[in-house]
Amino acid sequence: MKVEVKLFAYFRDNRFSVKTFVFAGNITVEEIIASLDINIEDVGVTMINGRHCKLDALLRDGDSLGIFPMIGGG
Amino acid sequence: MAEKIYRINMTDLSTRIEDVPENWMGHGGRGLTSTIIAAEVEPTCHPLGPSNKLVIAPGLLSGTPAANSGRLSVGAKSPLTGTIKEANAGGTAAQLLARCGCKAVIIEGQPTTGKWYNITISPGKIIVNEETELIGKGNFATAEAVGARLGEKLGVISIGPAGEMKMAAANVSIKDPDFRMRSAGRGGLGAVMGSKGVKFIAIDPQDGKVEIANPEAFKAANKAFAKALVNHPISQGLGQYGTNVLVNIINESGGLPTRNFTQGQFEGHEKISGETMYDLIQERGGKPKHGCHPGCVIQCSQVYNDADKKYKTSGFEYESIWAMGADCCVDDLDMIAEADSLMDDLGLDSIETSVAMGVAMEAGVLQFGDGAGICRILRDEVSKGTGLGRIIGGGAAMVGKSFGVARVPVVKNQAIPAYDPRAIKGIGITYATSTMGADHTMGYSIATNILNVGGSVDPLSKEGQVELSRNLQIATAAIDSTGMCLFIAFAALDDETCLPALIDLINARFGLSLTGDDVVNLGKYILKTEKAFNDAAGFSKEDDRLPEFFSLEKLPPHNVVWDFSGAEIDQFWNF
User: Fold this and answer.
1) Short-list B21, B113, B33, CA closest to B77
2) How far apart are CA B345 and CA B511, in angstroms?
3) I want to staple B418 with a disulfide (CB 3.0 to 4.6 A). Which of A10, B307, B322, B536 is the partner?
4) Predicted ipTM?
């Protein structure tokens, strides 16, 4: 299955902004984060297809996953 | 020195330095401006007439070494909304006014001669002089001229041509340490200052200092407070990317108002994002970090240079970038920076004016995406006060009425900022119920709806949103009284050492023993005082509503509408 992964703010440093991955079987948000060598403690928000999701959420074919550090403004 | 009220009557140019009434003593910032306006301004008065008053107050902690305590509150009855209004901003004025021993400045009356004046405040002294040289000048030229005339270190509070022309989108500008502008932006307070015939207020504290009742306790509390701020990851992100870090996350959530609030995502989001801005600043030799006042440990401002590596703008905020960017579909940061600088100079609220441009685009006055057109209208129409310029400078609702547009994103006539209430419902409750008209800063539900700060509440669900907005609005009213930057709230919501340290700071400053409950009660008192003013001015619960189109038009990508009933919204005031 194909999953688009989007990174934001300093998570992009030495990684990428957006990239499509092909996964063989079931995979969770947390497993994708670990595979990218991102410290889970630094993650503030994750969204699948623009909806907030939990770290144990399973990705489905065609999903878009956004991973953000803790950020704010206003 | 004992704090005093500095009162200036612009009808007869008389000045008085008064003792602070007992029941004003415990107030500062917004709590004080709203208390004074409620006590002294007839709610039904014309906002630009002689009965309105412009009240300027540093916060409770302004002028002390407390981190991030440089916010200045400016209040009056608003010519944009007709409600009570407080807008706050950084810059150096709050700290310097506090060092003058000034609890608040009250500017009342109105010249009948058509003459313009400047005011200089120093400890125990107010001077009012006629001003001729700087009339018609922008804020940058004004600040520089005041620096040359009176001294570079002085604080300056000024209006640009928009305020002189009494436009309802005119702001009050406050000089920062580098002669750039911070804006008490919302609600047309610059027009009120213009209606008083005041071009600028210079602040010269001389050797004035703020007394601290318990210096040792203050020092310890400030250390703990600053540590909580510096350690919070959001503070660190703000230093690197500025508030504009929000473009991408709000876009991802589907709540970034685009093309005059018809879409929730903007195709050009990446080009105007905080990440792109950071890269451009680095490439062009600018500064990602910049403080709007001494003592700020977050430094969300920046120095943004143009393609020729020359200074273009600073205090380049998410709200301004969203409004000219996504809402007007301009995907060019340099064009947005040009418009931002023009608005700072003219003294215009960059939210109200840019949303007004979006409505004008819908009306066909100019095309969506026409950033050069926005700059041309600012330069050739607004600054010269032409008919079109005055309509744009009158704000989004004025543009909608003038051109027959039904999709006008305002509450109580004030433009809705950078979060669509259909896709982020918690902020919709704040827009609807705020005593100030639509204003995200009054109760920043985005923290909990989108950013997972202070817990998390589903942005697309109605559940918990009224209570969330109520708690945030109460807390915000209290924070707005301290002189603290609202960005302390991220740490305050997440770090249990932060708020107690803030209360310790206030107690050490004044020799008090306030508790958390006292702070909550202060926030409730402020909201109720403001609401009572609005009720007496003729507002009712029917005004606490969002525009109809939010209920009728589905917002993509989530295809959601605003679905709160009036009765559900009205639960907000149950406290």
Assistant:
1) B33
2) 42
3) B322
4) 0.98
